[in-house]
Amino acid sequence: MQSVPRMLVPLFALFFLSFALLYASSALVEFIKPILSDGDLTGGLVKGVHMGVVALAVYELAQVVHQEYDKSGKPSDAIRRIRRSVTRFASVVFVALVLESLILVIKYSQQDLAGFLYYPVAIIASASLLLMSLGVFIKLSSSDTMEEAPSTAADD
């Protein structure tokens, strides 16, 4: 039964890593294409950063999947490892959301589309909610909280 995770975890990690590399190369193409065709540096930066952030998020997911199991295929110190992985991945998603909203603000302000600024504001609000949820997760999964939980349940 342990041979299945031992085989699948590296395959999934390789799958996500290959997608991250595809996104990174696509980010480079999206950055260079507007500059060479129109001389639009800002458009190239916006498109390149957008794809680069997606590449970073997919790469982080590949790392999380790869670190899910150690070399023997058995989970080691699962709570600490999950807490660290979730924190890193949520941080990358948070940065991606904030950069995406910044890109939208720049894009809409250049095109005089102030009515569409509700979308970046909604993205920033959801990023704030994600950051607060991450803080609650870290607080509830801290070692002090985890040690208090069994003792209070035993006292009841």
Q: How would you describe this structure to a colleague?
A:
The chain is mainly α. The protein folds into 2 domains: 1-74; 77-149. The chain is 84% helix and 0% strand. The longest helix is centred in the first third of the chain and has 36 residues, at 3-38. The model has no long low-confidence stretch (mean pLDDT 81). Keywords: Membrane, Transmembrane, Transmembrane helix. The chain crosses the membrane at residues 48-65, 86-106, 118-138.
- The gyration radius over C-alpha positions equals 20 Å
- Largest sheet geometry: none
Measured distance between first and last alpha carbons: 38 Å
Uncertain segments are: none
Average per-residue pLDDT, rounded, comes to 81
**What is the count of helical runs?**
5
Order of helices and strands: HHHHH
Helix content: over 70%
* Approximate shape: flat
Strand content: under 5%
How many extended strands?
A: 0
- Judged by helices, strands and strand pairing, the structural class is mainly alpha
Q: How many domains make up the 3D coordinates?
A: 2
- The quaternary state of the protein chains shown equals single chain
List strands and helices in order, with pairings.
Blueprint: H1 3-38, H2 41-66, H3 78-110, H4 118-140, H5 143-155
Provide a short characterization of the protein structure.
This protein has 156 residues and is mostly helical. The chain has helices at 3-38, 41-66, 78-110, 118-140, 143-155.
Primary descriptors:
single chain; 156 residues; mainly alpha; 2 domains; flat
